[in-house]
Structures are given as structure tokens and as C-alpha cells.
Amino acid sequence: QLYDLMTMAFKYQVLLCPRPKDILLVTFNHLDAIKDFVRDSPGILNQVDETFRQLIETYSCLSAGEFQLIRQTLLIFFQDMHIRVSIFLKDKVQNSNGRFVLPISGPVPWGTEVPGLIRMFNRHGDEVKRTEFTTGGNYVTPQREGSFDLYGDRVLKLGTNMYSVSRPVETHMSGASKNLASHAKENIAPNPLAKEELNFLARLLGGLEIKKPGDSETGFRLNLFTTDEEEEHAALTRPEELSYKVINIEATQ
Length: 253
Description:
- The strands form two sheets. Strands 1-4 form a two-stranded parallel sheet. A two-stranded antiparallel ribbon has the order 2-3.
- The chain is extended and about 80 Å long.
- β2 (117-121) and β3 (127-132) form a beta hairpin.
- 40% of the residues lie in helices and 6% in strands.
- It is mostly helical.
- The protein has a domain at 2-102.
- This is Protein OSCP1.
- InterPro entries: OSCP1.
């Protein structure tokens, strides 16, 4: 499952690269993260820096066409992989069928212009006519190009820790209880992905060997909250129509 997560995360990064050469910036983001892990180990840090230098030496001189060939080769490898990842589904960047949703707005690739203008030239290279058209998205020009040096601002966020972005905690009860009650009927239909995750959890629990110390009762207590206090608070503020009893999972079956 970890391999599947890494595979789909990298596919997402390659797919969303604004231009083929930015694959190198994604790789540098990966290596920047590794350098941060080993910053207290000078020996390993030197090895990572040496890897950096070799990457710069090997790939920085490639043409846009060669980078495009690398990108196409990677995407051919990933094209039949449509594994659903909860964080992508939650952020609406992946559909329920496992395919990624490509944005139609945002910054355009470095070195290109915001779409919306057609220029026509004569055979002498002189501009003779301009035509504007309405685009389907809101495009902006990037402020600067990401750094391809050993140290620098990569600008591109693809390849950085996708879990570091602050996300709203679903257990936080915001707004009036009546708003939650109004959505209660919408949430009656079970999420098939959630059911599969619970089934997987049950299989994991069923595969564990439990040694029974004396006559003490065995079992599992699954806390889906960060702290017990948070769980108690959610239980107190949860509307009555959304409350459920304890669910027992028979893992041995």
C-alpha cells in the first residue's frame, strides 16, 4: 500500500508539471526533503549533495524535447495505474475512478504567456493582426522560475510533503447543529471506500496474535481522534440523529 501511495503521488507530480523540464525541480524537491532529514549527518549530507551535482551535470543541459521524452516515458509507465488515494480524493484532485483532475486555471509554464491572444504575421515576420478570445480558466504569469542550483527556491511545490499543508479537521464541529442535521440525510448512503478501509482494518486486526494475560479481557480500542478530549468533545457536540452506538468488528471471520 505504501508503494501504491508513492506511485500515485509521483504520477500526480509528473502529470501536473507545467513544463517537461520541471520534472527536474520535482526531483530537487525530493532531494531537498532528504537533505532536511539528514542535516545532522555531514557524511550522508555530502553524499546527497554529490547526487545533486551529478543530476545537475547530467540533466540541466538537456533540451525541452528530451525532457518531454522523459515525461512521456514516465507517463506511459503510469498510464494504467488508477489507485485511489484518500488524500487526493479529499482534495478533489482525483475522481472516484482513480483518474486525476487536471486544473484549467493557475500559473502558466515559465516562459509562456497567458492565453487569450492570437497574433498573425505576414511572410516577412511583421505582425499584421491581433485577435483576442475568451479562455476557459483564470491564468496568471509565474513570478519567477524555480532554481535549478544546488541550493535555491524551487518555486514549484510538486514533490514537497503533501501532508504538511494544514487541512481542516473533519471532527471539528463548526456552525450550528441544525446545519449538520440538514446534511444527515445526505450522508446516509455509505461511502464504499470507507467500507473497504474498515474491512482492511478488520483483516489487519484478525491477523494479529493476542496473548491473553491472565483473565483480562482482550480487544481493541480504536480512537479516530487525536486525543481522548477531542473524542469526548465531538461526542458531546454531535447531533442526536448522527450518533451511533459502538460498532463491533468480528476480525476472526
